[in-house]
From TrEMBL:
It comes from Phyllobacterium bourgognense. It catalyses: pseudouridine(1915) in 23S rRNA + S-adenosyl-L-methionine = N(3)-methylpseudouridine(1915) in 23S rRNA + S-adenosyl-L-homocysteine + H(+). This is Ribosomal RNA large subunit methyltransferase H. Specifically methylates the pseudouridine at position 1915 (m3Psi1915) in 23S rRNA. Its main location: cytoplasm. GO terms for molecular function: rRNA (pseudouridine-N3-)-methyltransferase activity. It is found in: Cytoplasm. It comes from the Bacteria. GO terms for cellular component: cytoplasm. Pfam families: SPOUT_MTase (PF02590).
């Protein structure tokens, strides 16, 4: 299954990007033997529409353009559910084992995601009750994807 991270907003070079890239590089190496291939990060600019609802609609349309038909959409959203890393890894494995060809993890812009995109999502996931800066969310997503592969591989990186 191909894994893509979709992000509204561009991440500048610097230590945050380096850390996110480090985890994504690890994901590339550990995922392939498990049938999980990290493909890319798709970054789009924030919409310039004058109203928040229009911005969310435009950005959500671009998420759907990047999602293959039948692909799995995991949406990062403050209204989502939280789950332990083991449960997240099990979800990724279940989607892979169900024959899904793509998993797209979408990080929204400052206005969040359109309600219709949340309704379409296979999983709406929150990284806790706090609001996180976009750069930190990118790092957390990259690390959790890498952690999921180590859990599935039985690697000691993740210890319970």
């Amino acid at each position: 299954m191909r894994i893509t991270v979709f992000a509204v907003g561009r991440m500048k070079s610097g230590p945050e990007r380096e850390l996110a890239d480090r985890y994504l590089d690890r994901l590339k190496k550990t995922g392939v033997p498990l049938g999980l291939e990290f493909t890319s990060v798709i970054e789009i600019a924030e919409s310039r529409a004058s109203q928040a609802e229009l911005r969310k609609q435009e950005e959500s349309a671009k998420v759907l353009e990047a999602l293959d038909q039948g692909g799995v959409l995991i949406l990062l959203d403050e209204r989502g559910k939280t789950m332990p890393s083991e449960a997240f890894a099990a979800s990724v494995a279940r989607f892979r084992d169900d024959g899904k060809r793509q998993l797209l993890m979408a990080i929204g812009g400052p206005d969040g995601h359109d309600a219709s995109l949340r309704d379409r999502a296979d999983v709406v996931l929150a990284l806790g009750a706090m609001t996180w800066p976009h750069q930190i969310v990118r790092i957390l997503v990259a690390e959790q994807l890498y952690r999921a592969t180590t859990i599935l591989a039985g690697h000691p990186y993740h210890r319970s």
